[in-house]
Every structure is written in C-alpha cells, then in structure tokens.
C-alpha cells in the first residue's frame, strides 16, 4: 500500500470514528429526568398563574382523583416563571408550558429537555384563548402526563420484580408487581396479593369469569357491585368472623371504558367497606374482555390506609394492573 493510500485510509477511519462519536455525543446531550411521581412543573408567568389562566390549569390538573374518600389532586404542581426555567429546573419528567402571544394551540412533545420527559405547550394570543385551549384539550393533556407517570412507575417496579407466582400457569397471564407484595391467597384460579404499608395494606385480586357473566346495559353498575360483594364474601374476610369486604352503598362507583393489554375493559372506581366492621378504602376494578380465551378476566386493586392520603397507593396499583399481559 502506498503512503498516499495509507493516509487516505487513516483519514477515512478517523472520519467514521468522528461521526460515530458525534452521534453518540448527541444522544447523551439530554440529562436523565427527575421528580416524584405525579409532580408537575408549570412554566408560566406569575400574573397568569395567579389569575384566570392559573385557575383553569388547577381545575383540570389539580382536579380530585375519582374514587378516593377524600379530595386529592391528580397532580401536585410547582409553578416556575419562564425567566428561571433553566438548568436543573428543566429536568422534571412532566412539564406544562404556557406561552402568551402565539397562535392558539396545544402541542405535546417527548424528551425536550431531559429523558424520559413529556412536555405540553399551550399557547394563545389572549388569556381567553389559552383558557379555551386548556379546557377543550383537558382530557388529552391529562392523558399525556398520566401515561408518562404510569411508565415511570412501571420502570421502578421492574427494578425489583416478584417472580415466585403461578399466575402464568393458572390464569395464563403475567403481571409485574414488586417483591414487597406477597401471595396471600391462591385458590384454584383466584389470587389475593398483598403488601404491608405503614398504616395498612395495598391489595390486588385476580380471577376469571365466564364471558357472559357481565352484560353491558343500564344495570352494569349493579352487576359490578353484586360481583364484587360475592367475591368479597367468598374470598376477602374482615377482622372478625362473619365480616367481609363489600362495596360502599352510599358512594356510587364511577364506571368508564378503557383498554388493558389492547383489549376492551370496564374500569370501575369506588369505595369498599367491610360488612359489620369499621374498615373502608378505595378500589379500582377492571373487567377485561378476553375473547381469545372465552372469558372475562377481573383484576382489582384496593387499599386500606386509614388517616393518610391514598392517591399514590392507588396509582401504584393501577400501574401494576396496566402491566398485565394475557397469553393466547
């Protein structure tokens, strides 16, 4: 090989290495995001935050979570003036930015200042336009932030997964829950899974039903209540003989349609109590249409945590439930 060819070859190798390093460097430009689950940074001028725009934001993003015994907000919010939104302040996992002066719009972006991250930009020429964008896109904005937080909670759960269970063998499913949980009851195809917390327990139960067990219609809520009460009587005993978990009669559950593992599901949020005993708490129940296996799969999370806030406990249970995968 001539000296000229050697020089050209060396230059080519260095060029390829330089491009590769540049690409790698660009990939590393974004810092890791940070922040507690369900903590939202709101980048907005002080006067807007203290006025009607701020009120509209709070009505949507600090609205009470469905199915809890006390009002707790969807997100804890921290306001940051745009002038100081730099450096570490930009690293929060969820960011809402309000910009006055541009065309009225809502834009959702990922990994803008850090990763993983979800940023929602709301703009408008006037306060009225901004408020209108927030109100008209409320569901989309909440869903964007919530899905990001669900993913982050699931990522943390995967760091210490419970693996000693027979859910796949008995029910044909996988479910990601932490090692802090234990199998409290396993009877045929019914599972009760529990975790001790400082003031009580968080719980999951999983079981299957015939596909025709629930029929959609005007009586859907009544059907779900009867189902829960029968399962509670059979499997979830209270502190003394003859007591068991039932659905709180004075609080009508909220029912929604949703998707779990790409399958249609009925989501129910409400309160449970114990028949003939002073115990109660929130629950979130999913009845999943598993047509491939000709069954309904039911999975529920419920918490007993008296005298403390329960939003984060129920959020963890929902994140676990949404990790469910059903085999064919």
What is the multimeric organization of the chains shown?
single chain
Q: Describe the sheet with the most strands.
A: 8 strands, antiparallel
CATH fold type of the largest domain: Protein Transport Mog1p, Chain A
Compute the number of helices: 8
Structural class based on helices, strands and sheet pairing: alpha+beta
CATH architecture term of the largest domain:
3-Layer(aba) Sandwich
Q: Beta-sheet strand percentage?
A: 25-35%
Rounded to the nearest angstrom, the radius of gyration is 25 Å
Low-confidence stretches: 3-27
- What would the average pLDDT be, to the nearest integer? 91
Helix content: 25-40%
For this structure, what is the CATH class of the largest domain? Alpha Beta
- What separation lies between the terminal Cα atoms? 61 Å
**Domains (count):** 2
The secondary-structure element order is HEEHHEEEEEHHHEEEEHEEEEEHE
Overall strand count: 17
Q: Given the C-alpha coordinates, what overall shape results?
A: elongated
**Quick one: CATH superfamily of the largest domain?**
Mog1/PsbP, alpha/beta/alpha sandwich
Task: Describe this structure in a few short sentences.
By secondary structure, the protein is an alpha+beta fold. It is built from 8 helices and 17 strands.
Can you describe this structure?
There is one protein chain. The protein has two domains: about 30-150, Chitobiase, domain 2, CATH 3.30.379; about 160-325, Protein Transport Mog1p, Chain A (3-Layer(aba) Sandwich), CATH 3.40.1000.10. About 30% of the residues lie in helices and about 35% in strands. The chain contains eight helices and 17 strands. Strands 9, 10, 11, 12, 13, 14, 15 and 16 form an eight-stranded antiparallel β-sheet that branches. The protein has a five-stranded mixed β-sheet with strand order 3-2-4-7-5, covered by helices on one side. Strands 1-6 form a two-stranded parallel sheet. A hairpin with a 4-residue loop joins β15 and β16. The longest helix has 25 residues, at about 5-25.
């Amino acid at each position: 090989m001539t000296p000229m060819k050697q020089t050209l070859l060396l230059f080519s190798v260095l060029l390829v290495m330089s491009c590769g390093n540049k690409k790698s460097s660009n990939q590393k430009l974004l810092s890791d995001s940070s922040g507690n689950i369900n903590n939202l940074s709101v980048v907005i001028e002080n006067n807007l935050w203290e006025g009607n725009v701020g009120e509209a934001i709070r009505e949507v993003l600090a609205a009470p979570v469905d199915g809890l015994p006390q009002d707790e907000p969807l997100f804890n919010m921290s306001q940051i003036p745009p002038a100081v939104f730099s450096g570490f302040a930009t690293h929060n996992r969820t960011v809402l930015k309000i910009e006055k002066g541009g065309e009225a719009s809502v834009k959702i972006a990922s990994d803008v200042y850090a990763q993983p991250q979800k940023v929602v930009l709301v703009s408008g020429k006037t306060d009225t336009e901004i408020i209108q964008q927030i109100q008209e896109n409320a569901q989309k904005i909440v869903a964007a932030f919530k899905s990001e937080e669900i993913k982050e909670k699931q990522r943390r759960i995967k760091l210490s997964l419970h693996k000693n269970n027979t859910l796949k063998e008995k029910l044909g499913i996988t479910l990601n829950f932490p090692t802090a949980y234990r199998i409290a009851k396993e009877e045929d195809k019914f599972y009760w899974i529990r975790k001790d917390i400082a003031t009580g327990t968080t719980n999951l139960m999983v079981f299957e039903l015939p596909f025709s067990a629930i029929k959609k219609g005007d009586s859907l809520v009544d059907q779900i209540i009867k189902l829960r009460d029968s399962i509670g009587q059979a499997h979830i005993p209270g502190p003394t003989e003859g007591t068991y978990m039932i659905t709180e009669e004075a609080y009508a559950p909220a029912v929604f349609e949703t998707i779990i593992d790409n399958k249609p599901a009925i989501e129910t949020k409400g309160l449970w109590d114990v028949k003939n005993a002073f115990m109660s708490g929130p629950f979130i129940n999913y009845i999943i249409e598993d047509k491939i296996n000709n069954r309904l799969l039911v999975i529920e999370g419920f918490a007993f945590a008296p005298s403390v806030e329960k939003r984060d406990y129920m959020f963890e249970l929902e994140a676990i439930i949404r990790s469910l995968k059903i085999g064919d």
